[in-house]
Design a protein that fits this description.
UDP-N-acetylmuramoyl-L-alanine:D-glutamate ligase, five-stranded mixed sheet
C-alpha cells in the first residue's frame, strides 16, 4: 500500500505572525504576557500595527496543522495532507507557503468573503501572548470535503486526525470522515483540544466518540470530559478507562486513550490497561516556550503510528517532538533532520 498522504488532518488553519515586542505594545492592547485569547474589537487594529512595526515571521498555525507539520518532519516526504478554510487573500497564500516549507500538503477551502484567520504571537522575555482572529477558519463547509479532488485524498489516507476545535466549525465534516474510517477499517483519531469542547460542544463530541480509535487530551481536558459525562472522578487512568469502554462502531480494535500531563508521565489506556510513560526530563532553563507541546506530542505519536510501529515507540516519538518544540519559539519545526531513535 502506498504511504503517500497516509495521514490526513482537518481543523482550523491560522497564519501565525510572530515577533518579539516591547511590553508597552501589550499594554496598549490590554494584553497579558501569557494571554491566549480570541480577538475582540479592541484588538483588531493590532495586526496591521504589529506587522508594520516589527520584523515578523510567518508560520502555519492552528493546533491540528501544527501536529501535522510535526508528524511530517518525522515522516518520508508527501506523507501528510491538511484540510481547512482560509480567505482568498495574501495571508492565505502566506499560510500555504509556510505549510509547504514544512513539507505539509494543504487543500484549503478559499472563502471569498472572509479574511484568513490569524494569530498574533507577541513574544516578551520568553513569554508568548496569543491573540487569535478566526475569520475564515470558522467557515469550513462540508461541500468542499465532498469535492472529488478532496474526497480522493480522504480515500487515499489510512489515518485521520481531527482537532477538537473543528467541532465548533463543521461537525458534519468530521462525522463524514469518521464514518468513512469505520466503513473501511481505517484509523480515526481525535483530540479533545480544550475543556470548553467537552463542556459546551458535548453533543457533536458524543456523536463522534463511537468512531474514535485513538483519543488524545491533557489532564484539564480529561477532567472536563469526566464532568460532562458524570464519571465521578478526575483520575486520569480511571477517566481513560471509562472513555475507552464507551460504545464503539468499529469493533475490530479497542479504543486507545492518551492523556499527556505536562511534566508528569503520559497516561495511556490500551486493551483495558493503563500504563504511564515518563516524559523526557529537561532543565527549566532549557525551556523556551511550552505552548504547542501537546500539538507536538500528537504529531510525533502519529508519525510512528502511521508507519505501523508500536504504541511504546509512538509515545516515545511524541515525547521526543514535544521536547524539541518546547526548546524553540512557537511551534516552529527545525530545518535540520531529526535525531529520533527508539
Amino acid at each position: 500500500m502506498s504511504s503517500e498522504y497516509v495521514l490526513l488532518g482537518i481543523e482550523n488553519p491560522l497564519l501565525d505572525i510572530s515577533a518579539v515586542v516591547k511590553p508597552e505594545f501589550l499594554s496598549k492592547y490590554d494584553l497579558l504576557a501569557n494571554n491566549a485569547i480570541l480577538a475582540e474589537d479592541k484588538h483588531k487594529p493590532l495586526y496591521a500595527e504589529f506587522v508594520g512595526s516589527y520584523p515578523v515571521e510567518y508560520g502555519a498555525g492552528g493546533a491540528a496543522q501544527n501536529s501535522l507539520r510535526g508528524a511530517q518532519w518525522l515522516l518520508p516526504k508527501n506523507s501528510t495532507v491538511y484540510i481547512g478554510c482560509v480567505g482568498k487573500d495574501a495571508q492565505g497564500a502566506l499560510l500555504k507557503e509556510a505549510a509547504a516549507k514544512d513539507g505539509l500538503r494543504t487543500e484549503y477551502l478559499e472563502d471569498e468573503t472572509l479574511p484568513t484567520g490569524q494569530c498574533a504571537v507577541l513574544i516578551t522575555d520568553h513569554n508568548r501572548s496569543l491573540v487569535t482572529d478566526l475569520q475564515a477558519a470558522n467557515a469550513y463547509k462540508i461541500d468542499h470535503l465532498k469535492r472529488p479532488e478532496v474526497w480522493s485524498l480522504v480515500e487515499k489516507a489510512r489515518f485521520f486526525y481531527v482537532g477538537g476545535y473543528f467541532l465548533t466549525v463543521s461537525p458534519p465534516s468530521a462525522l463524514l470522515i469518521a464514518e468513512h474510517a469505520a466503513q473501511t477499517s481505517k484509523v480515526f483519531t481525535l483530540n479533545l483540544s480544550a475543556p470548553f469542547i467537552s463542556q459546551f460542544f458535548t453533543e457533536p463530541l458524543d456523536s463522534l466518540i463511537p468512531y474514535v480509535d485513538i483519543l488524545f487530551g491533557n489532564e484539564s481536558e480529561a477532567a472536563a470530559f469526566a464532568d460532562a459525562h458524570n464519571f465521578g472522578t478526575h483520575d486520569l487512568a480511571e477517566v481513560g478507562l471509562k472513555i475507552a469502554a464507551l460504545p464503539k462502531k468499529n469493533g475490530t480494535r479497542a479504543r486507545t486513550v492518551v492523556f499527556t500531563h505536562g511534566a508528569k508521565s503520559t497516561v495511556v489506556i490500551h486493551n483495558g490497561k493503563a500504563t504511564e510513560y515518563p516524559i523526557i526530563p529537561i532543565a527549566a532553563d532549557k525551556i523556551v516556550d511550552t505552548n504547542g507541546a501537546g500539538d507536538a506530542f500528537v504529531g510525533g505519536f502519529l508519525s510512528q503510528l502511521v508507519q505501523g510501529h508500536s504504541l511504546e515507540r509512538s509515545v516515545a516519538a511524541g515525547h521526543y517532538l514535544a521536547n524539541v518544540i518546547i526548546q524553540r519559539n512557537g511551534s516552529s519545526i527545525p530545518r535540520e533532520s531529526h535525531s529520533f531513535k527508539f
